[in-house]
Amino acid sequence: MTREIYVQGTSPREIAVTEDGQLVEYLLDEPAAAGAEAVYLGRVERLVPGMQAAFVDIGQERNGFLPLQEKSRSVLLPRLQAGDRVLVQVKKEAQGTKGAFLTRDVTLCGEYVLFMPCNRYIGVSARVTEEDDRRALKEQGAALAGGACGLVMRQAALDAPEEAIREELDGLRQTWERIGHAAPTSPAPSLLHRPRTLLDALLDDYLPRGVTCVVTDDPALDVPGVPLRREAPGLMERLGLRAQRDRALQRRVWLESGGNLIIDPCEAMTVIDVNTAKNTGRRDAEQTMLRTDLEAAREIARQTRLRNLGGIILIDMIDLQEEAHREQVLQALREAFAADRVKTVVHGLTSLGLVEMTRKKTRAPLLSDWTQPCMHCGGTGRIPREEKQHG
Q1: Hey, what long-range contacts does 343-346 have (CB within 8 A, 24 or more apart)?
Q2: Residues 228, 214: Cα–Cα separation, whole Å
Q3: What is the reported pTM?
Q4: 163, 171 in Cβ contact below 8 A?
Q5: What digits encode the pLDDT tens for the residues 272-285?
Q6: List of residues 6+ apart from 389 with CB closer than 8 A
Q7: Confidence class of residue 391 from pLDDT cuts 50, 70 and 90?
Q8: Neighbours of 279 (CB within 10 A)
Q9: Is residue 74 a contact partner of residue 121, using CB atoms and an 8 Å limit?
Q10: Using CA atoms, how far apart are residues 61 and 94, in angstroms rounded to an integer?
């Protein structure tokens, strides 16, 4: 696979990722926006016992949502009261009417490890699938942590020298110490740690899987270990990447066969409908529908990554009669999502025959970065039809 990363401008910065010439990610990197991974000193505004949660002021337009119980069993955290100062990290950025989703179980990300100073869990990235590799990485992680912290060993740690991993871990520990020193004297709310830039996060995620080159119009950008190609300013427009992005803002996506996808993001989930449309086939209807579903599976994976869809996703594939064909489509969908750097799980078919899947929410979707609600239609995208006059 040929994977290229395109970087335009400096502040704000536009970043695109292509795989075999097709756009799979298009990101807006705004330095002023401290999103997921940012660490804040917040103030508890109120507790909601019925939800086992607190609302925390972190200096954003809406208070963040903080569960009082963490998922990790090895995290021991003090009880909170209204007015308390509390150190929190953003797990999911604020979206729409919802504030940021917060955690007290801070994770600092590196290329080789995820450093978790508040717990003692030792884990291995799910992308490492060989059992011997997982066992070796877990043993290495336990030795590096020494019972003093939690670690998740990333895929890149497989081929990395232990000295490089130790050096990165020492740097993450120092970052945590700086946060701890700053917290007692900082006002609440305040930002104590700005996360990695989007470009750093992309490189950490994609370098272990291969990056063919980085293309940029920023003369100061340097990416060690990756071929760099410099272009004149305005490369996104000139190379047609913005045009591909703009097509991903539309509701309907046409497939090469003549079929199409209808993608409807809702408040609780995203619904995707697959249609044969112009692809009527010639003789065998089942084979025509199977080919359309297989093509749709690949395009759904690309569109989901490009649009940064998250949460629950329901897919209404074209109904197939044979169980083997339905399983073939599910397998094609799982394989198509294998290149996704965001955790995605294809759960299978519901009782109604819909494909049910989930994708971790991190950043705001593409639609939020590049569009805004219509002030005249209340965000529905529609305006009232003209009323008839009655005599």
Answers
A1: 343/126, 344/304
A2: 5
A3: 0.76
A4: no
A5: 999 987 766 666 78
A6: none
A7: very low
A8: 18
A9: yes
A10: 9
